[in-house]
Amino acid sequence: MPASTPPSHARAVIIGGGIVGCSVAYHLAKLGWSDVVLVERAQLTSGSTFHAAGLVGQLRSSANITQLLQYSVELYDILEAETEQATGWRQCGGLRLACNEERWTEVRRQATTARSFGLEMHLLSPAEAKKMWPLMQVDDLVGAAFLPTDGQVSPSDISQAMAKGARMRGVRCLEDCPVEAILIERGRAVGVRTAQGEIRSDVVVNCAGVWARQIGAMAGVCVPVTPMQHQFMITEPIEGVAAGLPTLRDPDRLVYFKEEVGGLVAGGYELNPKPWAQSGIPNGWTFKLIEPDWEHFEQLAAQALERVPALETAGVRQLINGPEAFTPDGSFLLGEAPELPGFFVGAGFNAYGIAAAGGAGRALAEWIVEGVPQMDLWPVDIRRFSQHHRDAVWSRGLTIEAYAHHYTMSWPHEEHEAGRPLRRSPLYQRLRDGGACFGTKLGWERPNWFAPQGVEPVDEYTYGYQNWFAHVGEEHRATRESVALFDETSFAKFMLLGKDVEAALSWICSAEIRKPPGACIYTQMLNARGGIECDLTVTRLAPDAFYLITGTGYSVHDADWIVRNIPDGMDVRLVDVTSQRAVIGLMGPRSRDVLAAVADVDMSNEAFPYLTWQTLRIAGAEVWAMRVTFVGELGWELHVPAETALTVYDVLRAAGEAHGIRDAGYRAIESLRLEKGYRVWSRDITPDNTPLEAGLGWNVKLRTEEPFSGRDAVLAQKRDGLRKRLACFTVDDRETVLLGRETIYRDGERVGWLTSGGYGYTVGKPIGYGYVRRDSGVDRDFVLSGRYELEVAGDMVPCAVHLRPLYDPSNERVRG
C-alpha cells in the first residue's frame, strides 16, 4: 500500500499535524497503540506550529497543569537523543519581571505556588536580573523571578521529532489528506472521510488548531476556539545577545523576548487584540502568514524598546503575524466531547501550545487509552464549556477579552465583562436594584456581594482585602445571627427518571441512595481509582424519579459523567431542568420563623427534619423546599417555578423584615462554608482525591456489601492507609490574605499546598484547606502533632491545624 493511501481501519485517527497532533500520536504509540493514523490537510507543522515563537514556560495556577508542562520539558530533554532528530531545545531558563508593588506581590505569590508544585523559582533584585539579562533597562523594576528549567525550542523541529518517534513505533502520518466528514454511527464517532478515502476507527481526535471549531462542527461538537492574530518581530543580530540568554517576560509592558541566532524575538499581547478569519479560514492556508500590521504592533514595539533600548538601532528581519487558536478563558481544551462518544479534542492552546504539547499529548493519549483521564484535568477539560459557546460571535467576545488579559494582572476574585449578561435569574433586576455586584459562572449572572446604600457595587481589585470585604462580613453575620436570602438559581438541576433509576444511582453514588421519597442525600460519585468525579445532592421525588442538584460550573461535566456511567441496559434517562426552576436559599437561625409565617405546612423540626424535602405553597406558588445547607446554619433551599420566583422572594423578604433579613451573595457563602469545613469540587475535592483523604469517609456506604463505582479502591485505601489527608489551617494574623496554593510546611518540611483560602468572619481568622502529604503515610496523629507554617508570597506565617470544623462541629445549628 502506498504511504499516502489511507488504511481502511485504525484504532485512532488524529486530525491535525501540528505539535499537539504529533504529540498525541507519539504518546499513543508509546502506550502500545501502534495502529494509529495522523491525517494532515497539508504538511506537518504547516498550520500555527511553524510560526510559533517557541517559548517553553511551565508554571500555571493548577498543580496538574504545571505538571503537564514540566513533563514537556522532561520530554524535550530526551527527544533528540531518542529520535536523532534535531529539536532546537535549550533549557536557558526564564525571567519574569515586576514593575510595581502589586505585580511584585503577584510574582512572589507565583514563587510560592512554584514551590508548592515542586518547581524551582528564584526571586531576584533588579540588579541580579540585569546581570542575567544585561541589555535590559531596569530603572523601573521592583524585582524579578527566575525559573531555571524554562527554555525555548524550535516548534517545527520538535514536532517533527515527535512525528518521527511515532512513526518509529508504527504510526502512519498522511499528508495532503484533508478531512471532509466525521463518520458517526449509533451516536458514536467511528472514523473520518478524507479526500483520499474513508478510515474507520475506534476514536477520532481533533487536534486541528485554528480549524478545530470547524472540525468539531462536522461532528456536532462545540469546540470554542477563535483564531487570533499574534505578532512578534525578529531582529538582526544585536551586540551582546548570545545563545543561552534566558527568555524574558515583561507582563507590565505586555511583551516577551527570546534570543534567536544572535538577535531577539520580541512579541506580546495587546489590550486591543484582533480576531482573524471571522468568516472562515481561507482555502489553501498552508505555511502562510497574515499580512504584517505594523500600526497595530507599534504599541508593543514601543514597550519593547523601553525595556531593551538596543532595539532602537537593531535591524528588523521580519514581523511575523500568524493566527493562533485561543479559547474563551485562556486555557486549552482536552477530553472526550460530551456530545459525541469516541470524539476527542486537543486544541485551543492560546499561544502556549509549544510549552504544553508534550504533557497535553501524553494526558490526552492516556485518556483515550484508559477511557478516563488519569489525573484531575478540570482546568482544561472541554466539559467546562456549554452549548452557549457554540455561538461563534458570543464566544469570540469572551476570547478577545481573555487574550487581552494574557499579561495583565491576574487579580484574586477577578470577574470578566465580555458576553454579559447572558443568563439571568428571575430575581436579577430586583437584586441589582438592591445593590448586587454580580459575577458570572457558565454564563449565569450571580450576586457576589451587596453594596449598602451610597456604595457603588463595583469590585476594586488588589492582593490585599478588597473593597467588598467588610460588606461581605455583614452578610456573613446576618446568616449566622438572623436570616439571609441567597439567589442560587444558577445551580445545575437534573431529573433522573426510569424504572431502573434506583439501581443506577446506587452504582454511581458512594452514599446510600436507597431511601424513601422525601429524602435528600449528599453524595459523591467516584471513578475506579476512588477519586471524586462529582459532588452533589440527590433528592428522591418518587420510586422512579430523583432530582439532582450540582454546582453551576459543573453542569456539562456532571451530566456527562452520569450518563456515561449508568450501567448498560438500564431504563434511565437524564433531563436537564436547570432553567425551569429558580432556587432561593433561606438560611440562618431565624429561617424557620420566616418560612413558618408564609408556608402552608408545619415547619417544626419534628415535622420537617434535616435532609428531607416537602412540597409547600407560598403565596399560591408551589415550592419544593429542601432542608439542606452549604453555609452551616438552619436553612432551606426553595426550588420554585421560574415564573413565580419573584413573588416568592418578595413574600419572604417582607416576612423576614422583623428578623433583620438581608440579601447575601456567593462571597459570603464562601466564607461561611470555610468555617464549616464544607468542600468544593475542583478545589478541595477532585478526581485525584478519595473520600477518605478528603475527610468524607463517613458518607461512603462501606458498611454494606452493595457494590458501587470506586468501592474496591476505597476499601484498599482503608486497608493500606492514607498518604495524604485534607486539613484546615488558621492564621492568627488577620492581615494575612489566603487565596489558595500557599505552601504548607510541617516541622520545616514542605508537605502540600492550600486548595482553598479565605477569611472566616465568625472565627475572626484567615482560613485555608489543603492536603498534608507523606509517602510513608498520614494519619490523624501525624497531622495534628506537627508545627505548621504557610508560605504566603515568600513569607513564612505560623498557623494552626484542625481536623474538625471550626464552626458548629457537632452540627447542632444545622439540625436544630
Report on this model:
The protein is an alpha+beta fold. The longest helix has 21 residues, at 63-83.
Q: Could you outline the blueprint of secondary structure elements for this entry?
A:
Blueprint: E1 9-15, H1 19-30, E2 36-39, E3 55-56, H2 63-83, E4 94-98, H3 101-116, E5 122-124, H4 126-132, E6 143-147, E7 151-152, H5 155-168, E8 172-174, E9 179-185, E10 188-194, E11 197-206, H6 212-218, E12 226-235, E13 247-250, E14 255-260, E15 263-268, H7 294-307, E16 316-326, E17 333-336, E18 343-347, H8 353-370, H9 392-404, H10 428-433, E19 436-441, E20 444-450, H11 469-481, E21 484-487, E22 492-497, H12 501-508, E23 520-526, E24 532-542, E25 545-550, H13 555-565, E26 573-576, E27 581-587, H14 591-598, E28 613-618, E29 621-626, E30 635-641, H15 645-656, E31 662-664, H16 666-676, H17 711-720, E32 724-730, E33 743-746, E34 749-760, E35 765-773, H18 780-785, E36 788-792, E37 795-802, H19 812-815
Parallel strand pairs: 1-2, 1-11, 2-8, 4-13, 11-18, 21-31
Antiparallel strand pairs: 3-7, 4-6, 5-6, 9-10, 10-11, 12-15, 12-16, 13-14, 14-15, 17-18, 19-20, 21-27, 22-25, 22-26, 23-24, 24-25, 27-30, 28-29, 29-30, 32-35, 32-37, 33-34, 33-36, 34-35, 36-37
Helix pairs in contact: 1-5, 1-8, 2-5, 2-8, 11-16, 14-15
